[in-house]
Amino acid sequence: MELQPVRQSLESESEGQPSTQLIHSLVRMLMAVRYRLNLVLAVMAAAVLLGGLYYATAPRRYSAKAGLLITQTQPDQLDTSLTTGEALRQNTMPTFENLIRSAKVIEGALKNLAPADRVDLAGVPRERWVAQLQENISAKAIRSTSILEVSYRSKDPQVAVNVVSALVQSYLDFMDRMHRGTAGELSRILTQEREQLSQKLAEKQSELLEARRKFADMGFRSDGATLHPMVQRAVFFNDAVIAAQKKRVEQEALLISVQAAIDSGDDLGQYIMSVGDAVGREMLLSSLGLGNRDAYTQAGLEKSLLDDRARLTTVQQNLGPNHPEVITLAERVRITEQYLSSAQQRINARIAGLSQSQLGPWLLSMVRQKLEESRREEQILTTQFEDARSEAINLTGQLAHLEMLDRDVKRFTEMNEVLWKQIASLDLKQNGQDVRVTETEPPVMNNKAVTPRLGVVAILAILGGGGVALGLVTLLDAMDDRFRSIDEMQSRLGLPLLTLVNRLDAPEKTGPR
After folding, report:
1. Per-residue pLDDT tens for 152-163?
2. Cβ-defined contacts of 229-233 (< 8 Å, 24+)
3. CATH number belonging to the domain at 62-180, selected among 3.40.50, 2.40.128, 1.10.3470, 3.30.1890
4. Structure pTM?
């Protein structure tokens, strides 16, 4: 009962000092190791032996690496802040790391590998080749840079170099296709189509030139401002025939009107200016006082009358009405006006003086003569028009063929220009983000194996042997029910040592004395 307070005090002291308990545990572990030192040495020796055996028998792996510089053009070229560039790099570099190990890139690299470069795929099914290469490929971005490091491990150092080269080339091709989208393929298709179109255009141009030489074409077209001479000739005679027909119809109507006026005894003066040629009309008008001389005389008098009136107005502003000059000008104006007003009366009297028997036959003769001339003119023009129309009809077929060829040439030319512009626009730099990948460090063959490494194997053997040894020591120490020292007994029991009783020898005799 007296030991209970002591135990509680020791437990509270040990709980208040965890470092002391840890030190006691370490000391106890060291004592256990020292007690079983032979076991520890044996385990360590076995671990080192196994490590050496592994290093001697493990297959060698060789590595090759390449460096890729990935530059990105931001959409906003004016924003040159470092924060934006760093954020862009942090967001996109992990994507590029995973992309180089993607199945698309590896499949592209496999196509470029020779059979001798597939030593790592020996015995592996074809559908597992991509996964097998992915296990040996590593990609990492160098911190705070835009450089991506790509490496590959292989059984052969030269194969490692070849695989890295094929992988880098496949990655470059994939990035180029990805960022150009379908522009490259579309440009190739359009270029091929343009070549075919250019060939058709050359054929149509040759056919058009041959047709122009055959038909002696002078370049006139139906839709142009200038017609072909043959067509112009047909159009000219057509207009002339229409004018002749119109003239003939007018002459026939005039003949009927004159004949009706003669029969009814109407005034024939209204038909004088409509019939006869220039000489006949001049003779008739001269006899009536309406010839060219009479007209000139009348025009001169009218001009003189205007001048006299103007002069009279000017003189009256400065001179009185009884001035001789004013009186003379006024008299001259009066006489001239009287003469001009009586001239029309004289002409009417002369026309009325002509007898119906004299004017009627002359008008009928002149109208019949003009009608016959119109009919002969119409017949001649109709014949010429028929000939010109036949030639124009034959020409129309030739021109239609030429126009069809010309339209084909224009259509092919326009299509060729459109394709050329589309191809040029596809080759322009697209707006938005642009990613460029450049190989900065080509792969170099390294004959020094990367696995297994002697230092790594030694460290692992020592750590492994030490761990196994400590585990065995701890296990054996836990299973051992004996105390090797007084300190160990106090530590394990958590009780202080009050006294030490020496070993008591058993008496020779037992029982009551």
Report:
1. 888 888 888 888
2. 230/388, 230/391, 230/392, 230/395, 231/392, 231/395, 233/388, 233/391, 233/392
3. 3.30.1890
4. 0.41
